[in-house]
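Re: weekly structure request thread

Next one in the queue (508 aa):
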Amino acid sequence: MEQMLNLIVPGLVVAGIFVGGMLIGRKFVKIPPSPAEIIADARMDAQRILVRAEEDARSSADTYREREDATLEHRRLEVDSRDATLEQRAATLEQRAANLAQREDLLIEKERVAKVVSDEAANAQEEVRLELEALAGFDSREAKAELLEKVEDEVRRDAMVLVRDVETRAREEASRRARRILAGVIQRLASEVVAETTTSTVVLPSDDMKGRIIGRDGRNIRTFEAIGGVDLIVDDTPESVTISTFDPVRREVARLALESLVGDGRIHPSSIEEAFEKARDEVEQSIRDAGEWAMLDVGLTRIHPELVTLLGRLKFRTSYGQNVLNHLVESAHIAGMLAAELGVDAKEAKRAAFLHDIGKAVSHEVGGSHALIGAEIARRFGEEAGVVHAIEAHHNEVEPRTLTAVLVQAADAVSAARPGARRDALDSYVRRLERLETIAMSFDGVDTAFAIQAGREVRVIVDPGTLDDMASTTLARSIAKKLEDDLQYPGQIEVTVIREYRAKDYAR
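Done, posted below.
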Protein backbone atom coordinates (compact mmCIF):
# COMPACT_ATOMS: atom_id res chain seq x y z
CA MET A 1 0.00 0.00 0.00
CA GLU A 2 2.81 2.41 0.91
CA GLN A 3 4.51 1.75 -2.39
CA MET A 4 1.29 2.57 -4.22
CA LEU A 5 1.02 5.83 -2.29
CA ASN A 6 4.60 6.70 -3.06
CA LEU A 7 3.80 6.30 -6.74
CA ILE A 8 0.48 8.09 -6.68
CA VAL A 9 1.37 11.12 -4.50
CA PRO A 10 4.11 12.65 -6.72
CA GLY A 11 1.88 12.26 -9.72
CA LEU A 12 -1.00 13.92 -7.95
CA VAL A 13 1.29 16.75 -6.81
CA VAL A 14 2.44 17.42 -10.33
CA ALA A 15 -1.14 17.21 -11.63
CA GLY A 16 -2.30 19.57 -8.92
CA ILE A 17 0.44 22.07 -9.71
CA PHE A 18 -0.47 21.93 -13.37
CA VAL A 19 -4.23 22.31 -12.76
CA GLY A 20 -3.72 25.00 -10.15
CA GLY A 21 -1.48 26.89 -12.43
CA MET A 22 -4.04 26.80 -15.16
CA LEU A 23 -6.80 28.05 -12.87
CA ILE A 24 -4.73 30.77 -11.36
CA GLY A 25 -3.52 31.74 -14.77
CA ARG A 26 -7.08 32.22 -15.96
CA LYS A 27 -8.64 33.87 -12.92
CA PHE A 28 -5.78 35.41 -11.04
CA VAL A 29 -3.21 36.22 -13.53
CA LYS A 30 -2.15 39.15 -11.62
CA ILE A 31 -1.50 37.22 -8.32
CA PRO A 32 0.32 33.88 -9.06
CA PRO A 33 0.23 31.28 -6.17
CA SER A 34 3.38 30.37 -4.43
CA PRO A 35 4.95 26.95 -4.85
CA ALA A 36 4.30 26.10 -1.20
CA GLU A 37 0.60 26.72 -1.56
CA ILE A 38 0.45 24.66 -4.69
CA ILE A 39 2.24 21.74 -2.95
CA ALA A 40 -0.06 22.04 0.08
CA ASP A 41 -3.18 21.94 -2.08
CA ALA A 42 -1.86 18.97 -3.96
CA ARG A 43 -1.14 17.09 -0.79
CA MET A 44 -4.61 17.76 0.51
CA ASP A 45 -6.13 16.47 -2.75
CA ALA A 46 -3.89 13.45 -2.63
CA GLN A 47 -4.89 12.82 0.96
CA ARG A 48 -8.53 12.92 0.04
CA ILE A 49 -8.05 10.58 -2.91
CA LEU A 50 -6.04 8.21 -0.75
CA VAL A 51 -8.76 8.10 1.89
CA ARG A 52 -11.44 7.45 -0.74
CA ALA A 53 -9.32 4.67 -2.30
CA GLU A 54 -8.80 3.04 1.10
CA GLU A 55 -12.53 3.12 1.75
CA ASP A 56 -13.30 1.57 -1.67
CA ALA A 57 -10.66 -1.12 -1.17
CA ARG A 58 -11.98 -1.91 2.26
CA SER A 59 -15.56 -2.17 0.99
CA SER A 60 -14.46 -4.43 -1.88
CA ALA A 61 -12.49 -6.64 0.50
CA ASP A 62 -15.50 -6.99 2.83
CA THR A 63 -17.77 -7.94 -0.07
CA TYR A 64 -15.29 -10.49 -1.40
CA ARG A 65 -14.83 -11.97 2.06
CA GLU A 66 -18.59 -12.34 2.56
CA ARG A 67 -18.99 -13.99 -0.83
CA GLU A 68 -16.14 -16.42 -0.13
CA ASP A 69 -17.59 -17.25 3.27
CA ALA A 70 -20.97 -18.05 1.68
CA THR A 71 -19.26 -20.25 -0.90
CA LEU A 72 -17.31 -22.10 1.74
CA GLU A 73 -20.46 -22.64 3.78
CA HIS A 74 -22.28 -24.04 0.76
CA ARG A 75 -19.42 -26.40 -0.01
CA ARG A 76 -19.31 -27.51 3.60
CA LEU A 77 -23.00 -28.36 3.49
CA GLU A 78 -22.48 -30.35 0.27
CA VAL A 79 -19.62 -32.29 1.83
CA ASP A 80 -21.74 -33.04 4.90
CA SER A 81 -24.58 -34.31 2.64
CA ARG A 82 -22.21 -36.51 0.65
CA ASP A 83 -20.75 -37.92 3.87
CA ALA A 84 -24.25 -38.81 5.04
CA THR A 85 -25.04 -40.50 1.71
CA LEU A 86 -21.80 -42.47 1.81
CA GLU A 87 -22.50 -43.59 5.35
CA GLN A 88 -25.99 -44.74 4.31
CA ARG A 89 -24.59 -46.66 1.31
CA ALA A 90 -21.92 -48.21 3.49
CA ALA A 91 -24.60 -49.39 5.88
CA THR A 92 -26.62 -50.86 2.99
CA LEU A 93 -23.58 -52.67 1.63
CA GLU A 94 -22.82 -54.09 5.05
CA GLN A 95 -26.42 -55.36 5.27
CA ARG A 96 -26.19 -56.96 1.84
CA ALA A 97 -22.87 -58.54 2.70
CA ALA A 98 -24.44 -60.00 5.79
CA ASN A 99 -27.39 -61.37 3.76
CA LEU A 100 -25.04 -62.91 1.18
CA ALA A 101 -22.99 -64.52 3.87
CA GLN A 102 -26.16 -65.98 5.37
CA ARG A 103 -27.28 -67.31 1.99
CA GLU A 104 -23.87 -68.78 1.34
CA ASP A 105 -24.05 -70.63 4.63
CA LEU A 106 -27.51 -72.00 3.68
CA LEU A 107 -26.27 -73.15 0.26
CA ILE A 108 -23.28 -74.85 1.77
CA GLU A 109 -25.56 -76.67 4.18
CA LYS A 110 -27.92 -77.74 1.38
CA GLU A 111 -25.02 -79.00 -0.74
CA ARG A 112 -23.76 -80.99 2.20
CA VAL A 113 -27.18 -82.54 2.80
CA ALA A 114 -27.65 -83.26 -0.95
CA LYS A 115 -24.26 -84.93 -1.12
CA VAL A 116 -25.10 -87.08 1.86
CA VAL A 117 -28.44 -88.08 0.30
CA SER A 118 -26.77 -88.80 -3.05
CA ASP A 119 -24.14 -90.95 -1.44
CA GLU A 120 -26.81 -92.85 0.45
CA ALA A 121 -28.85 -93.37 -2.75
CA ALA A 122 -25.78 -94.55 -4.65
CA ASN A 123 -24.93 -96.95 -1.88
CA ALA A 124 -28.51 -98.24 -1.84
CA GLN A 125 -28.53 -98.63 -5.62
CA GLU A 126 -25.24 -100.47 -5.53
CA GLU A 127 -26.56 -102.76 -2.79
CA VAL A 128 -29.70 -103.47 -4.84
CA ARG A 129 -27.59 -104.15 -7.96
CA LEU A 130 -25.39 -106.55 -6.02
CA GLU A 131 -28.44 -108.33 -4.61
CA LEU A 132 -29.99 -108.63 -8.10
CA GLU A 133 -26.73 -109.91 -9.55
CA ALA A 134 -26.51 -112.43 -6.75
CA LEU A 135 -30.07 -113.60 -7.38
CA ALA A 136 -29.67 -113.68 -11.19
CA GLY A 137 -26.27 -115.27 -11.15
CA PHE A 138 -24.53 -112.89 -13.65
CA ASP A 139 -22.94 -109.47 -13.75
CA SER A 140 -25.09 -106.46 -14.79
CA ARG A 141 -22.33 -105.11 -17.00
CA GLU A 142 -22.17 -108.40 -18.87
CA ALA A 143 -25.97 -108.43 -19.20
CA LYS A 144 -25.93 -104.88 -20.54
CA ALA A 145 -23.22 -105.70 -23.07
CA GLU A 146 -25.10 -108.82 -24.19
CA LEU A 147 -28.36 -106.88 -24.53
CA LEU A 148 -26.68 -104.12 -26.54
CA GLU A 149 -25.06 -106.68 -28.81
CA LYS A 150 -28.39 -108.41 -29.41
CA VAL A 151 -30.19 -105.14 -30.11
CA GLU A 152 -27.37 -104.07 -32.42
CA ASP A 153 -27.65 -107.32 -34.40
CA GLU A 154 -31.42 -106.93 -34.73
CA VAL A 155 -31.17 -103.30 -35.77
CA ARG A 156 -28.45 -104.08 -38.31
CA ARG A 157 -30.52 -106.92 -39.79
CA ASP A 158 -33.65 -104.75 -39.99
CA ALA A 159 -31.62 -101.95 -41.58
CA MET A 160 -30.22 -104.32 -44.18
CA VAL A 161 -33.70 -105.57 -45.00
CA LEU A 162 -35.03 -102.00 -45.22
CA VAL A 163 -32.17 -100.83 -47.42
CA ARG A 164 -32.58 -103.79 -49.72
CA ASP A 165 -36.33 -103.20 -50.01
CA VAL A 166 -35.81 -99.48 -50.72
CA GLU A 167 -33.20 -100.24 -53.36
CA THR A 168 -35.49 -102.78 -55.02
CA ARG A 169 -38.45 -100.42 -55.07
CA ALA A 170 -36.32 -97.56 -56.36
CA ARG A 171 -34.90 -99.71 -59.16
CA GLU A 172 -38.32 -100.99 -60.18
CA GLU A 173 -39.88 -97.54 -60.02
CA ALA A 174 -37.05 -96.05 -62.08
CA SER A 175 -37.45 -98.75 -64.71
CA ARG A 176 -41.20 -98.28 -64.88
CA ARG A 177 -41.00 -94.49 -65.13
CA ALA A 178 -38.26 -94.73 -67.76
CA ARG A 179 -40.43 -96.97 -69.95
CA ARG A 180 -43.41 -94.66 -69.57
CA ILE A 181 -41.42 -91.52 -70.35
CA LEU A 182 -39.79 -93.10 -73.39
CA ALA A 183 -43.11 -94.34 -74.69
CA GLY A 184 -44.69 -90.92 -74.30
CA VAL A 185 -41.78 -89.20 -76.01
CA ILE A 186 -41.83 -91.63 -78.93
CA GLN A 187 -45.58 -91.17 -79.36
CA ARG A 188 -45.14 -87.37 -79.53
CA LEU A 189 -42.01 -87.37 -81.68
CA ALA A 190 -42.82 -86.52 -85.29
CA SER A 191 -39.50 -87.58 -86.79
CA GLU A 192 -38.61 -89.49 -89.93
CA VAL A 193 -37.54 -92.66 -88.15
CA VAL A 194 -39.26 -95.80 -89.39
CA ALA A 195 -40.53 -98.60 -87.17
CA GLU A 196 -42.89 -101.51 -87.62
CA THR A 197 -45.47 -100.08 -85.23
CA THR A 198 -45.64 -96.82 -87.20
CA THR A 199 -46.60 -98.09 -90.64
CA SER A 200 -49.79 -98.41 -92.68
CA THR A 201 -50.25 -100.81 -95.59
CA VAL A 202 -52.25 -99.92 -98.72
CA VAL A 203 -53.51 -102.80 -100.86
CA LEU A 204 -53.06 -102.37 -104.63
CA PRO A 205 -55.22 -103.94 -107.33
CA SER A 206 -52.09 -105.21 -109.13
CA ASP A 207 -48.32 -104.89 -109.09
CA ASP A 208 -48.52 -102.69 -112.20
CA MET A 209 -49.79 -99.91 -109.96
CA LYS A 210 -46.38 -99.75 -108.23
CA GLY A 211 -44.84 -98.40 -111.42
CA ARG A 212 -47.46 -95.64 -111.60
CA ILE A 213 -46.85 -94.77 -107.97
CA ILE A 214 -43.11 -94.48 -108.58
CA GLY A 215 -43.57 -92.50 -111.81
CA ARG A 216 -41.04 -91.57 -114.43
CA ASP A 217 -37.60 -91.27 -112.82
CA GLY A 218 -39.35 -91.53 -109.44
CA ARG A 219 -41.03 -88.13 -109.61
CA ASN A 220 -44.40 -89.36 -108.33
CA ILE A 221 -43.02 -91.04 -105.22
CA ARG A 222 -40.78 -88.06 -104.45
CA THR A 223 -43.73 -85.69 -104.78
CA PHE A 224 -45.87 -87.93 -102.55
CA GLU A 225 -43.21 -88.10 -99.82
CA ALA A 226 -42.49 -84.34 -100.01
CA ILE A 227 -46.14 -83.29 -99.74
CA GLY A 228 -47.14 -85.88 -97.14
CA GLY A 229 -44.02 -85.84 -94.99
CA VAL A 230 -43.96 -89.65 -94.94
CA ASP A 231 -41.86 -92.50 -96.28
CA LEU A 232 -43.50 -94.52 -99.06
CA ILE A 233 -41.94 -97.98 -99.21
CA VAL A 234 -42.40 -99.88 -102.49
CA ASP A 235 -40.77 -103.29 -102.14
CA ASP A 236 -41.27 -106.85 -103.31
CA THR A 237 -44.37 -107.40 -101.20
CA PRO A 238 -47.06 -108.43 -103.67
CA GLU A 239 -49.87 -105.96 -104.35
CA SER A 240 -49.15 -103.64 -101.44
CA VAL A 241 -47.07 -100.62 -100.45
CA THR A 242 -46.20 -99.33 -97.00
CA ILE A 243 -46.52 -95.79 -95.56
CA SER A 244 -44.27 -95.10 -92.60
CA THR A 245 -44.02 -92.15 -90.19
CA PHE A 246 -44.19 -91.57 -86.47
CA ASP A 247 -46.95 -88.95 -86.82
CA PRO A 248 -50.23 -90.93 -86.95
CA VAL A 249 -52.21 -88.00 -88.39
CA ARG A 250 -49.83 -87.58 -91.32
CA ARG A 251 -49.83 -91.34 -91.83
CA GLU A 252 -53.63 -91.40 -91.99
CA VAL A 253 -53.70 -88.46 -94.43
CA ALA A 254 -51.14 -90.21 -96.66
CA ARG A 255 -53.11 -93.47 -96.52
CA LEU A 256 -56.35 -91.84 -97.59
CA ALA A 257 -54.60 -89.88 -100.34
CA LEU A 258 -52.88 -93.00 -101.71
CA GLU A 259 -56.09 -95.00 -101.63
CA SER A 260 -57.80 -92.17 -103.53
CA LEU A 261 -55.01 -92.07 -106.14
CA VAL A 262 -55.05 -95.85 -106.58
CA GLY A 263 -58.81 -95.83 -106.96
CA ASP A 264 -58.70 -93.04 -109.54
CA GLY A 265 -55.76 -94.54 -111.44
CA ARG A 266 -54.36 -91.17 -112.53
CA ILE A 267 -51.15 -90.52 -110.59
CA HIS A 268 -49.06 -87.45 -111.33
CA PRO A 269 -47.80 -84.50 -109.20
CA SER A 270 -50.91 -82.33 -109.57
CA SER A 271 -53.30 -85.18 -108.80
CA ILE A 272 -51.15 -86.12 -105.76
CA GLU A 273 -51.47 -82.58 -104.43
CA GLU A 274 -55.25 -82.57 -104.93
CA ALA A 275 -55.56 -85.97 -103.25
CA PHE A 276 -53.65 -84.74 -100.21
CA GLU A 277 -55.83 -81.63 -99.88
CA LYS A 278 -59.00 -83.76 -99.93
CA ALA A 279 -57.46 -86.27 -97.50
CA ARG A 280 -56.48 -83.47 -95.06
CA ASP A 281 -60.00 -82.09 -95.10
CA GLU A 282 -61.39 -85.56 -94.52
CA VAL A 283 -59.00 -86.28 -91.62
CA GLU A 284 -59.71 -82.90 -90.00
CA GLN A 285 -63.43 -83.58 -90.19
CA SER A 286 -62.82 -87.06 -88.78
CA ILE A 287 -60.82 -85.53 -85.94
CA ARG A 288 -63.63 -83.11 -85.05
CA ASP A 289 -66.22 -85.87 -85.26
CA ALA A 290 -64.12 -88.14 -83.02
CA GLY A 291 -63.71 -85.40 -80.42
CA GLU A 292 -67.43 -84.62 -80.39
CA TRP A 293 -68.30 -88.31 -80.23
CA ALA A 294 -66.02 -88.82 -77.25
CA MET A 295 -67.44 -85.76 -75.48
CA LEU A 296 -71.02 -86.96 -75.99
CA ASP A 297 -70.11 -90.49 -74.92
CA VAL A 298 -68.71 -89.20 -71.63
CA GLY A 299 -71.69 -86.86 -71.17
CA LEU A 300 -69.78 -83.57 -70.95
CA THR A 301 -70.74 -80.20 -72.40
CA ARG A 302 -69.20 -76.77 -72.81
CA ILE A 303 -65.70 -77.83 -73.80
CA HIS A 304 -63.66 -75.35 -75.80
CA PRO A 305 -63.64 -76.20 -79.55
CA GLU A 306 -59.84 -76.28 -79.60
CA LEU A 307 -59.86 -78.88 -76.82
CA VAL A 308 -62.37 -80.93 -78.80
CA THR A 309 -60.05 -80.85 -81.81
CA LEU A 310 -57.06 -81.89 -79.72
CA LEU A 311 -59.08 -84.74 -78.25
CA GLY A 312 -60.01 -85.88 -81.74
CA ARG A 313 -56.33 -86.03 -82.73
CA LEU A 314 -55.83 -88.64 -80.00
CA LYS A 315 -57.95 -91.00 -82.11
CA PHE A 316 -54.80 -91.66 -84.14
CA ARG A 317 -52.42 -92.05 -81.17
CA THR A 318 -51.72 -95.13 -79.09
CA SER A 319 -49.99 -95.86 -75.81
CA TYR A 320 -48.64 -99.41 -75.38
CA GLY A 321 -51.01 -100.40 -78.19
CA GLN A 322 -54.04 -98.84 -76.47
CA ASN A 323 -55.93 -96.10 -78.33
CA VAL A 324 -55.51 -92.91 -76.29
CA LEU A 325 -58.96 -91.47 -77.05
CA ASN A 326 -60.67 -94.72 -76.03
CA HIS A 327 -58.48 -94.73 -72.94
CA LEU A 328 -59.69 -91.22 -72.03
CA VAL A 329 -63.34 -92.18 -72.48
CA GLU A 330 -62.88 -95.30 -70.39
CA SER A 331 -60.97 -93.41 -67.70
CA ALA A 332 -63.73 -90.79 -67.51
CA HIS A 333 -66.39 -93.46 -66.93
CA ILE A 334 -64.25 -95.16 -64.28
CA ALA A 335 -63.55 -91.86 -62.50
CA GLY A 336 -67.25 -90.98 -62.55
CA MET A 337 -68.18 -94.31 -60.97
CA LEU A 338 -65.46 -94.00 -58.31
CA ALA A 339 -66.56 -90.46 -57.50
CA ALA A 340 -70.19 -91.56 -57.19
CA GLU A 341 -69.18 -94.36 -54.80
CA LEU A 342 -67.18 -91.92 -52.65
CA GLY A 343 -69.72 -89.12 -52.73
CA VAL A 344 -67.43 -86.72 -54.65
CA ASP A 345 -68.38 -84.40 -57.51
CA ALA A 346 -68.66 -86.88 -60.38
CA LYS A 347 -68.74 -84.21 -63.11
CA GLU A 348 -65.40 -82.74 -62.09
CA ALA A 349 -63.82 -86.20 -61.78
CA LYS A 350 -65.10 -87.26 -65.24
CA ARG A 351 -63.96 -83.99 -66.81
CA ALA A 352 -60.45 -84.25 -65.30
CA ALA A 353 -60.09 -87.92 -66.30
CA PHE A 354 -61.36 -87.16 -69.82
CA LEU A 355 -58.74 -84.43 -70.30
CA HIS A 356 -55.81 -85.92 -68.35
CA ASP A 357 -53.86 -87.05 -71.47
CA ILE A 358 -54.65 -84.02 -73.62
CA GLY A 359 -50.93 -83.16 -73.63
CA LYS A 360 -50.22 -86.19 -75.82
CA ALA A 361 -52.03 -84.50 -78.70
CA VAL A 362 -49.26 -81.94 -79.29
CA SER A 363 -46.04 -82.70 -81.12
CA HIS A 364 -42.45 -82.78 -79.93
CA GLU A 365 -42.10 -79.08 -80.67
CA VAL A 366 -43.67 -78.37 -77.25
CA GLY A 367 -41.15 -79.46 -74.61
CA GLY A 368 -41.96 -80.95 -71.23
CA SER A 369 -43.98 -83.75 -69.64
CA HIS A 370 -47.35 -84.40 -71.29
CA ALA A 371 -49.06 -84.01 -67.90
CA LEU A 372 -47.69 -80.49 -67.37
CA ILE A 373 -48.31 -79.58 -71.03
CA GLY A 374 -51.89 -80.83 -70.76
CA ALA A 375 -52.44 -78.79 -67.58
CA GLU A 376 -51.16 -75.67 -69.31
CA ILE A 377 -53.44 -76.29 -72.32
CA ALA A 378 -56.46 -76.81 -70.05
CA ARG A 379 -55.63 -73.67 -68.07
CA ARG A 380 -55.28 -71.66 -71.27
CA PHE A 381 -58.73 -72.73 -72.49
CA GLY A 382 -60.54 -71.85 -69.27
CA GLU A 383 -60.76 -75.13 -67.34
CA GLU A 384 -61.26 -74.93 -63.57
CA ALA A 385 -58.34 -75.07 -61.14
CA GLY A 386 -59.35 -78.49 -59.77
CA VAL A 387 -59.37 -80.03 -63.25
CA VAL A 388 -56.02 -78.44 -64.13
CA HIS A 389 -54.44 -79.74 -60.92
CA ALA A 390 -55.74 -83.28 -61.54
CA ILE A 391 -54.21 -83.23 -65.04
CA GLU A 392 -50.78 -82.07 -63.87
CA ALA A 393 -50.74 -84.51 -60.93
CA HIS A 394 -51.89 -87.72 -62.62
CA HIS A 395 -48.26 -88.90 -63.05
CA ASN A 396 -46.99 -87.29 -59.79
CA GLU A 397 -45.10 -84.48 -61.52
CA VAL A 398 -47.02 -82.44 -58.94
CA GLU A 399 -48.04 -83.82 -55.55
CA PRO A 400 -51.81 -84.58 -55.58
CA ARG A 401 -53.66 -82.23 -53.24
CA THR A 402 -57.30 -83.09 -53.99
CA LEU A 403 -59.41 -86.22 -54.02
CA THR A 404 -60.22 -85.60 -57.68
CA ALA A 405 -56.52 -85.85 -58.57
CA VAL A 406 -56.27 -89.18 -56.74
CA LEU A 407 -59.37 -90.48 -58.52
CA VAL A 408 -57.86 -89.55 -61.89
CA GLN A 409 -54.70 -91.46 -61.02
CA ALA A 410 -56.76 -94.49 -60.02
CA ALA A 411 -58.93 -94.35 -63.15
CA ASP A 412 -55.86 -94.03 -65.38
CA ALA A 413 -54.23 -97.06 -63.73
CA VAL A 414 -57.39 -99.18 -63.89
CA SER A 415 -58.01 -98.41 -67.57
CA ALA A 416 -54.41 -99.22 -68.48
CA ALA A 417 -54.17 -102.36 -66.34
CA ARG A 418 -57.39 -104.13 -67.26
CA PRO A 419 -56.91 -107.38 -69.21
CA GLY A 420 -56.67 -106.83 -72.94
CA ALA A 421 -56.44 -103.03 -72.73
CA ARG A 422 -52.88 -102.84 -73.87
CA ARG A 423 -50.60 -104.71 -76.19
CA ASP A 424 -50.81 -108.20 -74.66
CA ALA A 425 -53.62 -110.43 -75.84
CA LEU A 426 -55.88 -112.12 -73.34
CA ASP A 427 -54.30 -115.57 -73.70
CA SER A 428 -50.78 -114.21 -73.17
CA TYR A 429 -52.10 -112.24 -70.21
CA VAL A 430 -53.51 -115.39 -68.62
CA ARG A 431 -50.30 -117.30 -69.31
CA ARG A 432 -48.29 -114.56 -67.63
CA LEU A 433 -50.47 -114.72 -64.51
CA GLU A 434 -50.09 -118.51 -64.41
CA ARG A 435 -46.33 -118.13 -64.78
CA LEU A 436 -46.23 -115.70 -61.86
CA GLU A 437 -48.11 -118.11 -59.60
CA THR A 438 -45.98 -121.07 -60.74
CA ILE A 439 -42.72 -119.27 -59.91
CA ALA A 440 -44.02 -118.29 -56.47
CA MET A 441 -45.19 -121.84 -55.72
CA SER A 442 -41.78 -123.30 -56.64
CA PHE A 443 -40.23 -122.12 -53.33
CA ASP A 444 -40.21 -124.23 -50.18
CA GLY A 445 -42.63 -123.23 -47.45
CA VAL A 446 -45.16 -121.62 -49.84
CA ASP A 447 -48.71 -122.77 -49.24
CA THR A 448 -50.66 -120.72 -51.82
CA ALA A 449 -49.86 -117.95 -54.32
CA PHE A 450 -52.18 -115.54 -56.13
CA ALA A 451 -51.39 -113.12 -58.99
CA ILE A 452 -53.63 -110.04 -58.65
CA GLN A 453 -53.84 -106.43 -59.86
CA ALA A 454 -53.48 -107.51 -63.51
CA GLY A 455 -50.22 -109.26 -62.70
CA ARG A 456 -48.70 -106.27 -60.88
CA GLU A 457 -48.79 -107.97 -57.48
CA VAL A 458 -48.18 -111.51 -56.26
CA ARG A 459 -49.47 -112.46 -52.82
CA VAL A 460 -47.82 -115.50 -51.29
CA ILE A 461 -49.20 -117.31 -48.23
CA VAL A 462 -46.57 -119.38 -46.41
CA ASP A 463 -46.71 -122.13 -43.82
CA PRO A 464 -46.09 -120.40 -40.45
CA GLY A 465 -44.65 -123.57 -38.98
CA THR A 466 -41.97 -123.79 -41.65
CA LEU A 467 -40.90 -120.14 -42.04
CA ASP A 468 -40.47 -117.43 -39.43
CA ASP A 469 -40.80 -113.68 -40.00
CA MET A 470 -37.20 -113.17 -41.08
CA ALA A 471 -37.35 -116.10 -43.46
CA SER A 472 -40.56 -114.66 -44.94
CA THR A 473 -38.73 -111.42 -45.72
CA THR A 474 -35.94 -113.37 -47.38
CA LEU A 475 -38.51 -115.38 -49.35
CA ALA A 476 -40.11 -112.18 -50.72
CA ARG A 477 -36.73 -111.01 -51.95
CA SER A 478 -35.96 -114.42 -53.52
CA ILE A 479 -39.29 -114.53 -55.37
CA ALA A 480 -38.80 -110.97 -56.65
CA LYS A 481 -35.31 -111.87 -57.86
CA LYS A 482 -36.63 -114.98 -59.61
CA LEU A 483 -39.32 -112.94 -61.38
CA GLU A 484 -36.71 -110.40 -62.52
CA ASP A 485 -34.55 -113.14 -64.00
CA ASP A 486 -37.23 -115.26 -65.67
CA LEU A 487 -39.92 -112.81 -66.88
CA GLN A 488 -40.18 -109.69 -69.00
CA TYR A 489 -42.92 -107.27 -67.96
CA PRO A 490 -43.68 -103.53 -68.02
CA GLY A 491 -43.56 -101.61 -64.78
CA GLN A 492 -43.01 -103.49 -61.54
CA ILE A 493 -44.40 -106.51 -59.71
CA GLU A 494 -44.95 -106.26 -55.97
CA VAL A 495 -44.35 -109.46 -54.00
CA THR A 496 -46.26 -109.70 -50.71
CA VAL A 497 -45.54 -112.62 -48.37
CA ILE A 498 -48.23 -113.29 -45.75
CA ARG A 499 -47.42 -115.39 -42.68
CA GLU A 500 -50.33 -116.00 -40.33
CA TYR A 501 -49.83 -118.13 -37.24
CA ARG A 502 -52.92 -119.55 -35.58
CA ALA A 503 -52.78 -121.31 -32.20
CA LYS A 504 -55.68 -123.61 -31.36
CA ASP A 505 -56.78 -125.39 -28.20
CA TYR A 506 -59.95 -126.98 -26.87
CA ALA A 507 -61.66 -126.57 -23.53
CA ARG A 508 -63.15 -129.79 -22.23
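Residues 138-188 form one domain. Confidence is low (pLDDT under 50) at residues 26-30, 188-197.
Next request, please.
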